[in-house]
């Protein structure tokens, strides 16, 4: 899609996931829950980290559209986590975002070309994230996972060969779980 390099201002513990999950991961554990999209400058940081800063403006209307997409994605992923399938309400929320754009294909001088058309520029980032989610589903809904650490709310796309990745980051959540098990074993 676009060259992606995390913006150095990006405070999130996990970046670089596919666009749909990267949008979900704009909320991460904390008290209260951290939310990169709680202000317009956070939206600009996310657009930069997602490689969309040159295509999308960090304006209030775009922020509202991206928040709507994130809510729809969260409902869909929650359904996958809890039921193994996306329910009608979550699908309807996702489809509300998807109906704001379309992919137009044409044969151009350089060969086949694809162009994203959206109802307004504020919908581009939101639509791209929702469309990316459909691509992830096509690769395997079972690979869209929530981190196994009980205090973590991050999601990732499991690209491991055997599909058994459990942690958003082995260095953070995986080590926390190992340390907790070690502590319990040593206490007991």
Outline the secondary-structure elements.
Elements lengths: L18 H6 L2 E2 L5 E2 L4 H10 L10 H24 L4 H11 L2 E8 L2 E8 L5 H17 L3 E3 L8 E3 L12 H18 L1
Antiparallel strand pairs: 1-2, 3-4, 5-6
Helix pairs in contact: 3-4, 3-5, 4-5
Number of helical regions:
6
How far apart, in Å, are the first and last alpha carbons? 51 Å
C-alpha-based Rg, rounded: 18 Å
Strand order within the widest beta sheet: 1-2
Uncertain stretches of 5 or more adjacent residues: none
The major beta sheet can be summarized as: 2 strands, antiparallel
* Average pLDDT level: 91
CATH hierarchy: architecture of the domain at 19-143: Orthogonal Bundle
Number of strands: 6
The helix content is 40-55%
Q: Which structural class do the helices and strands define?
A: alpha+beta
Q: What's the name of the CATH homologous superfamily of the domain at 19-143?
A: Jann2411-like domain
- Estimated share of beta-strand residues: 5-15%
Principal-axis shape: globular
């Amino acid at each position: 899609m676009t060259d992606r390099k995390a913006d150095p201002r990006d405070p999130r513990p996990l970046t670089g996931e596919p666009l749909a999950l990267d949008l979900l991961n704009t909320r991460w554990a904390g008290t209260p829950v951290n939310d990169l999209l709680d202000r317009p400058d956070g939206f600009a940081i996310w657009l930069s980290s997602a490689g969309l800063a040159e295509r999308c403006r960090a304006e209030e209307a775009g922020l509202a559209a991206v928040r709507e997409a994130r809510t729809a994605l969260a409902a869909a992923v929650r359904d996958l986590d809890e039921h193994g399938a996306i329910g009608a309400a979550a699908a309807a929320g996702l489809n509300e975002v998807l109906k704001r754009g379309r992919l137009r294909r044409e044969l151009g001088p350089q060969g086949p070309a694809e162009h994203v058309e959206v109802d307004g520029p504020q919908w581009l980032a939101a639509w791209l994230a929702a469309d990316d989610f459909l691509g992830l589903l096509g690769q395997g809904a079972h690979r869209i996972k929530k981190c196994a650490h009980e205090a973590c709310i991050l999601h990732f796309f499991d690209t491991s060969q055997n599909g058994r990745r459990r942690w958003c980051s082995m260095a953070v959540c995986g080590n926390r779980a190992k340390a907790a098990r070690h502590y319990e074993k040593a206490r007991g």
